[in-house]
Design a protein that fits this description.
The protein is built from 13 helices and two strands; from the N terminus they run αβααβαααααααααα. It is mostly helical.
Length: 385
């Protein structure tokens, strides 16, 4: 291969971003494609929650969401640390996408036979990420090998744990998943053995912020998709005018969620201390979880008119989701540099929105009509903007 070809991006091995003089902090098309397949998983999770409203269904939803989000976040960390766009990396990303597809298809049967397929898909996904870090170790100077080597080892162990868990019966298979992911998080944040103790573990902040903002848009967009599919399945010509008004109210409320996020915390320049990094990272997990919950709850808009009680099984999901969403926005606001709008969006206003969400929950419990419930809910929403 000629020297000219070796300089082309398709043949360059992965490099730490600090060693690349002319790098871009913008999200690449491969990463956007990777995000899109994870949103398919999130849509299926939302559908699962929509059909399993009880506590057991909710716990399954939360557990799977955390697993999928962690898998996504681990790869996001890699692409933020290392600039990699060569042929091998593209093929590895394609293989990861295929494993996500396999895991996504197993979600509807996750409490039965689907768990085995999900475990195998998750284990293969982690094995591919381990190999990505191994490539960095092979092509890096000695100082970089400590970080990449430890990451390759950690993900190899997690991969083996998930593949072996496929042999376990329920509930041990789910317990094994939880233990493996808990130890992986310790491998990040522990001051003694965590990889964040390495000086080279400094991701591109702008890249992470943009990646989170884009995923947030897609996750909120899933709420629109759920509502449209629900109405289309029911038949737009089979519903009354007041149901259509409720439907439009739900769409407007989803737009307001994006408004709240991007005006106050989205794409924020967060403070550099590690404690803020932890807070910022994990608050986004709960924020996106709550956004999915709200999107599921709004499918109830298509099921009632003005004078019927709002379905309680959807109301509690939406109320808890909104309360968590506003609380996480407050947490994120403490992690980023102050903006002008923060002068008007203090803790009292957030607390008012959370209070109105809880009042709506109580009102629905006592069978108030949907129009009254909407009024209470929208007061909480609109107060935030």
């Amino acid at each position: 291969m000629s020297h000219h070809n070796q300089e082309h991006i398709l043949w360059q091995p992965p490099q730490h971003h600090a060693d690349v003089p002319h790098k871009s902090n913008h999200v690449a098309w491969i990463e956007l494609f990777f995000d899109l397949i994870h949103v398919v998983c999130i849509f299926l999770l939302g559908s699962y929650l929509g059909h399993h409203h009880g506590l057991d269904g909710f716990l399954v939803f939360v557990g799977l969401f955390l697993m999928i989000w962690i898998a996504w976040g681990d790869t996001v960390f890699y692409t933020s640390l290392y600039v990699s766009n060569d042929v091998v990396h593209r093929c590895l990303m394609a293989l990861q996408i295929c494993t996500v597809m396999l895991g996504a298809a197993a979600i509807p049967q996750i409490t039965g036979s689907g768990a085995v397929y999900f475990a195998v898909a998750y284990g293969l996904n982690r094995a591919i990420l381990a190999y990505m870090y191994w490539r960095v170790q092979r092509n890096s100077p000695v100082g970089e090998r400590c970080l990449s080597g430890e990451m390759a080892r950690n993900f190899s162990l997690v991969s083996v744990a998930f593949l072996l868990s496929a042999l376990l019966p329920a509930p041990w298979i789910y317990i094994a998943w939880g233990v493996a992911l808990l130890l992986l998080q310790v491998g990040y944040v522990s001051s003694r053995v965590g990889i964040m103790r390495f000086e080279r573990f400094v991701p591109r902040i702008e890249h992470l912020s943009e990646r989170f903002a884009l995923l947030m848009l897609i996750v909120l967009g899933e709420g629109f998709f759920k509502m449209v599919v629900t109405l289309a399945d029911k038949g737009i010509d089979h519903v009354s005018a007041d149901v259509l008004v409720n439907y439009m109210v739900g769409g407007f409320a989803l737009f307001v969620l994006a408004w709240i996020y991007f005006d106050f915390v989205g794409n924020g320049q967060f403070k550099v201390e590690k404690r803020y990094v932890y807070r910022w990272w994990y608050a986004h997990v709960v924020l996106m979880l709550s956004a999915v919950m709200i999107g599921v709850a709004f499918t109830g808009e298509v099921k009632v008119g003005f004078w019927q009680p709002y379905p309680l099984e959807y109301a509690w999901i939406g109320c808890v989701g909104l309360a968590l969403y506003l609380f996480c926005c407050w947490i994120l606001q403490t992690c980023i540099e102050k903006r002008y709008v923060h002068d008007f969006y203090g803790w009292r206003l957030r607390a008012f929105g959370i209070l109105m969400a809880l009042i709506f929950w109580v009102a629905v419990y006592y069978q108030v009509t949907a129009v009254v419930g909407h009024l209470l809910f929208m007061i909480g929403f609109l107060s935030q903007v």
